[in-house]
Amino acid sequence: MKLLISNDDGISALGIRTLANCLAEAGHDISVVCPDRERSATGHGLTLQQPIRAEIVESIFHPSIKAWACDGTPSDCVKLALWALLDSPPDLVLSGINQGANLGTEILYSGTVSAAMEGTLEGIPSIAFSLTSHTHKDFQPAARFAKLLLEQLTTQPLPDLMLLNVNIPPVTWEEIAGVTLTRQGVRRYVDVFNKRIDPRGKTYYWLTGEVLEEVEPPPGLHLPPQIPLDIHVIRKNFISITPLQYNLTYANGLDQLSTWEFKFP
């Protein structure tokens, strides 16, 4: 398969090197276009007020991989790849393997998920891979599962345009309990701003956040309640796969607001 791989952790991140090299060794045609530095939590931001530069990168990846480092956001990288750098569209856009989870409402901020979503917006099925730890450094089980998932998609392609948000627990391959289709949960954070003073006496703030609670999503989303939440299955060492789409229309809201009447003079 022809694959485009990006991330938000940057060109030097171990996760993207492990993923790209593993899939190249499996015989896939790999192109990598990713930020030249960490661009985590950038969401779906695009660079509009300055030029975007991309430099060819050598000696980091498997010899068969074509790679560029881009000074833009993750979404910039995928858009630039699809419209300027690649000679033909890929079969899939992959993003990751991210260092850290992208579960529940975290996907709204995630540069990893946004890079994959950019592929979906361009009509290309996409997958975001995340290792659910900020400290665990063994990406091999996640890359091994990515290889298996692509083998599955070769024989059973996705039936519709979608993004698969895949989260892998930070354990050995033998400790993975299985693979589960999930629905998106909700993670609420306590946002704490640490107030500091720089060497010139100017005040600045550093955002830190901790998970306060993990809760069920609100009712009325037309999702079967028997499907487990992504935030729950990870704790049991299951790999979580959540199908996502970019259409954020709230169907139940349309029903609830259908009785509104507007009177203009």
Mean pLDDT: 90
> How is the largest sheet built, in terms of strand order?
3-4-2-1-5-6-7-11-8
The biggest sheet amounts to: 9 strands, mixed
**Number of beta-strand segments:** 11
Mass-distribution shape: globular
Describe this structure in words.
It is a single chain. With 265 residues, the protein is of the alpha/beta class. It has 2 domains: 2-183 and 223-246, Stationary-phase Survival Protein Sure Homolog, Chain: A (3-Layer(aba) Sandwich); 187-215, no CATH class. The chain is 23% helix and 29% strand. The protein contains 6 helices and 11 strands. A 9-stranded mixed β-sheet has the order 3-4-2-1-5-6-7-11-8, with helices on both faces. Strands 9-10 form a two-stranded antiparallel sheet. α2 (74-85) packs parallel to α3. The protein is globular. The model has no long low-confidence stretch (mean pLDDT 90).
Key phrases:
6 helices; about 260 residues; Stationary-phase Survival Protein Sure Homolog, Chain: A; 2 domains; globular
Please give a quick description of this structure.
The chain is of the alpha/beta class. It contains six helices and eleven strands. The chain has a nine-stranded mixed sheet with strand order 3-4-2-1-5-6-7-11-8, sandwiched between helices.
